[in-house]
Design brief:
The complex is a heterodimer of chains A (387) and B (260). Helix content of chain A is 52%, strand content 12%. By secondary structure, chain A is α/β, with parallel strands linked by helices. In chain A, helix 3 runs parallel beside helix 4 and helix 6 packs antiparallel against helix 7. With 260 residues, chain B is an alpha/beta fold. Chain B folds into 2 domains: 114 residues, Nucleotidyltransferase, domain 5 (2-Layer Sandwich); 144 residues, ATPase, nucleotide binding domain (Nucleotidyltransferase, domain 5, 2-Layer Sandwich). Helix content of chain B is 40%, strand content 21%. In chain B, helix 2 crosses helix 8. The chains are: A alpha/beta (387), B alpha/beta (260).
Chain lengths: 387, 260
C-alpha cells in the first residue's frame, strides 16, 4: 500500500514541478498571485483568475536581503525579499501582503522599492474579530477587489466569487479529512509527508490539487488501506508542534526519528491554513454577502499569535492537547518573531502547571539542522518518555 | 554487573566503567578527528586500569555531541539526560544542573529521581564555554588549568563587556596593552561568563542544590564567580568532567537491569 501512495505522490510532485517550471518561464496557464500570510483571502485571488501561490522560499538564504533589511529581522520575510530580488519566477510578478506584523510591512516597503514593476498590495488586517473589525476587514476585501479589477482590467462577479469559495471549501474539507486520518494513525504517512501535502496545496493550482487530493484520500480510505486503530497506535509520545512558519520539514522527521509522533501542527504552514469550510447556504448571495462570509471565515478561524486573543488560542491548544492525547508541546518559532514570543511565556507556564513539558526551538531558514537542535529534540523526547 | 558510559564531547572524551553501582575507574582524553577510534581507545584504557575486558561489558551507552558516531555503543542518550542522572547519583539533593562544557552550556532542572523536568541550552557560539576560556588563556599566556588560581589573586574589578570570543579576545589584548593585571582580566572574564550563565539559568526556576558539571567546573575562579552571581547552594563534584559519562553508565546499568 505504501508503495502505491508514494508513487502517486511522486507523480503529483513531478506535475507540480512542471507548473513551477512553467512559472519560471513566465508561461503558466493562469497568472500567479503570491501571498505570504494565511489571512490573505485566497477566494478573491482564485475569483480574479489567478493561481494563488504561497511564497515559501526555504531554499533562499535570508542573508541575501541583508543589504535592505537588518539581520535581526524575520528570516521568512528576508528570504521572501531575497527571492524577490532574483526576479526569476513569474510568481514574483504579483504579491499580496497581509498587514499581520511589522516584518510584513517592511517586506511591503522593501518590495515596492527593490522589486520594481511588480504588482504589490498591502491588505490591512484587524487584530480581533469584533463586529467593527469584521466590517473593516470586509471593506478592505472590497477595496482589494476594486484594485485587482482596475489593475488587471477584470470583473470579479458574484458568480466567480461563489465558485472560488467552493474550490477553497473543497481544499479545506479534504485537508481536514486527511488531518483526522493522519492524527489517528489510520493511514501510514509520516509527519514530513503530511506537512508536505499541506504545503503542496499552498503552491499548487487549487482545482488540480483538489482532484489529486480527493483521489489520494479515496485510495487511502479503501478498506485494505485503512489501518486498524489498535494495531497501529504505537507507544510513542504524542507531540504537538506550535509556531509560525515551518522552514524545514526535516524537523518533523527528527522528532519522529527520536521516537515521537507528531499528531498536530498548529502553524500557518500546518493546520492554521485550513479549518471549517465557509457555509454558503442555498440562496443566491450578493457580492457583499459573500465578502462578509469570507471576512468571517478569516477572522473567526483559529487565531495566529499576532491576533489579540490569547484566551482563544489557549482554549484551542488545550482542546487539541486533550483530543489528541498530547504528551509534550514543541514551540517552533522563527527568530525575532515578536508576536509569537510575547505569548510564549504565558502559554508555557500554563502548560507546565498542567504537567505538559514544553520545548522552545528557533527557526532561521537555514537549510541544515544543527547538532544542537537535534540534541534538544532528542533530550525532549527523553523527558517525555518519563511523563 | 559491568557497564560503561562514554561522553564524546567537543574537547574531551570521557569513559566511565561502572560495576554494581560503583565507579570502578574512568579516563579523560582529548578529542581528535577520529572520534570512533579515540573513544574505543578511551574505553580500552579504562578497562586496562580496571582489569576487565570489552566483552564483559553488558551495555555501553554513549552521550555527548559525538554520541551518534559510536557504532559499538548499544544506545545513544543526550548529555542533558546523562548529566541529570549523574548529578543526582552524586548528590541526590541536586535540583538544578549547570553544565559548562567545551562548546556549549546547559542549565537543567531535575526532580528528586534525577529526571529532567526542563532545560535550556546555549550552543550558538563559544561564548560562556570552555573553548572561550581556552582562547582567553592563550591570549593571556596562562595555562588553562591555572586560570582559576590566577583569577582568585585579583584585587581590582574589571568589566569585560564583550562575550563574543573574537571581540572579547581583542578586548583582552587592549586591556593588556593598557597595563591591566592578568588576574584582574581573568576575574573579569569569569564574571562575564557567570553573568551569561546566570541569565540563562534564570529562564528556568532555579532550585537548590545547584550542581556544577563539565570541565569548566574544575576552574575555582569560575566556581567562585558563579556562586556570587547565583547566590545559591552550589555543589561541585570531585570529578565534574565525568558526570555526563557517569550518567551514561548509570543509564546503561538501568538498561542492563531491565534486561535481566
Amino acid at each position: 500500500m505504501k508503495k502505491i501512495m508514494k508513487r502517486e505522490w511522486l507523480d503529483f510532485i513531478k506535475q507540480q514541478e512542471g507548473i513551477i517550471a512553467l512559472a519560471a518561464h513566465k508561461k503558466p496557464k493562469k497568472p500567479i498571485m503570491s501571498w505570504v500570510c494565511t489571512y490573505t483571502p485566497l477566494e478573491i485571488i482564485i475569483a480574479a483568475g489567478f493561481y494563488p501561490y504561497r511564497l515559501l522560499p526555504a531554499h533562499i538564504d535570508p542573508s541575501l536581503a541583508n543589504s535592505y533589511l537588518d539581520s535581526n529581522f524575520c528570516p521568512y520575510v528576508r528570504s521572501c525579499l531575497g527571492e524577490g530580488l532574483t526576479k526569476k519566477s513569474a510568481y514574483l510578478d504579483n504579491l499580496i501582503i497581509g498587514n499581520s506584523c511589522d516584518a510584513m510591512r517592511r517586506l511591503y516597503d522593501a518590495w515596492r522599492h527593490y522589486v520594481p514593476g511588480s504588482f504589490i498590495y498591502l491588505l490591512d488586517l484587524p487584530r480581533n474579530n469584533s463586529p467593527k473589525a469584521l466590517e473593516y476587514y470586509q471593506y478592505n476585501l472590497q477595496r482589494l477587489i476594486e484594485e485587482l479589477e482596475s489593475r488587471f482590467a477584470i470583473k470579479i462577479s458574484e458568480d466567480l466569487l461563489y465558485q472560488a469559495i467552493l474550490v477553497s471549501n473543497k481544499t479545506r474539507k479534504l485537508l481536514t479529512e486527511l488531518s483526522h486520518l493522519y492524527a489517528k494513525e489510520r493511514i501510514s504517512i509520516s509527519a514530513t509527508e503530511f506537512l508536505q501535502i499541506i504545503q503542496e496545496g499552498m503552491i499548487s493550482p487549487p482545482e488540480e490539487y483538489n482532484i489529486f487530493l480527493g483521489k489520494f484520500l479515496d485510495d487511502l480510505k479503501k478498506e485494505e488501506n485503512i489501518l486498524l486503530t489498535d494495531s497501529q497506535i504505537k507507544d510513542r509520545p504524542k507531540v504537538l508542534i506550535s509556531g509560525t512558519v515551518m522552514d524545514n520539514l526535516e524537523i518533523a522527521r527528527v522528532i519522529e526519528d527520536c521516537g515521537g509522533k507528531v499528531v498536530f501542527v498548529d502553524m500557518c504552514t500546518g493546520e492554521r491554513y485550513f479549518s471549517e469550510p465557509i457555509t454558503l447556504g442555498e440562496t443566491k448571495r450578493s457580492r457583499s454577502d459573500l465578502l462578509r462570509l469570507i471576512a468571517e471565515y478569516y477572522l473567526n478561524k483559529v487565531p495566529c499569535p499576532r491576533m489579540v486573543n490569547l484566551e482563544k488560542r489557549w482554549t484551542y491548544l488545550l482542546k487539541v492537547i486533550k483530543d489528541y492525547e498530547v504528551k509534550g508541546v514543541i514551540f517552533y518559532n522563527l527568530k525575532f518573531c515578536d508576536t509569537s514570543m510575547f505569548e510564549l511565556p504565558v502559554i508555557r507556564e500554563r502548560l507546565q502547571k498542567s504537567g505538559i513539558p514544553t520545548l522552545c526551538l528557533e527557526g532561521e531558514f537555514a537549510s541544515a539542522i544543527s547538532g544542537g537542535l537535534k540534541t534538544r529534540i532528542q533530550a525532549f523526547m527523553e523527558v517525555l518518555e518519563f511523563v | 554487573m559491568l557497564v560503561a558510559g562514554l561522553d564524546v564531547g567537543s574537547l574531551t572524551i570521557k569513559a566511565v566503567v561502572l560495576e554494581d553501582n560503583t565507579i570502578k575507574d574512568f579516563t579523560i582524553i582529548p578529542t581528535g578527528a577520529e572520534i570512533n577510534k579515540l573513544t574505543k581507545d578511551c574505553l580500552e584504557l579504562t578497562l586496562k586500569k580496571t582489569g576487565d575486558y570489552f566483552k564483559d561489558l553488558k551495555i555501553i551507552v554513549a552521550t555527548g555531541y559525538g554520541r551518534i558516531s559510536i557504532p559499538f555503543a548499544d544506545k545513544s542518550i543526550t548529555e542533558i539526560t546523562c548529566h541529570a542522572l549523574g548529578a543526582n547519583w552524586l548528590n541526590p539533593d541536586t535540583r538544578t544542573v549547570i553544565d559548562i562544557g567545551g562548546q556549549d552550556s546547559k542549565v537543567i532542572s531535575v526532580d528528586k529521581e534525577g529526571r529532567v523536568v526542563d532545560f535550556v541550552m546555549n550552543d550558538k557560539c563559544a561564548a560562556g564555554t570552555g573553548r572561550f576560556l581556552e582562547v582567553m588563556a592563550q591570549a593571556l599566556g596562562v595555562k588553562t588549568e591555572d586560570l582559576g588560581k590566577e583569577s582568585l589573586k585579583s584585587r581590582r574589578k574589571i568589566n569585560i563587556s564583550s562575550m563574543c570570543t573574537v571581540f572579547a579576545e581583542s578586548e583582552v589584548i587592549s586591556l593588556i596593552a593598557e597595563g591591566c593585571a592578568k588576574e584582574d582580566i581573568l576575574r573579569g572574564l569569569h564574571e562575564a561568563i557567570a553573568n551569561r550563565i546566570g541569565s540563562m539559568a534564570n529562564r528556568l526556576r532555579l532550585e537548590n542544590t545547584i550542581t556544577l558539571t563539565g570541565g569548566v567546573a574544575k576552574n575555582t575562579g569560575m566556581v567562585q564567580a558563579l556562586k556570587k552571581r547565583l547566590k545559591a547552594k552550589v555543589y561541585v563534584p570531585p570529578e565534574p568532567q565525568i558526570v555526563g559519562a557517569l550518567g551514561a553508565a548509570l543509564a546503561a546499568q538501568k538498561m542492563a537491569g531491565n534486561n535481566i
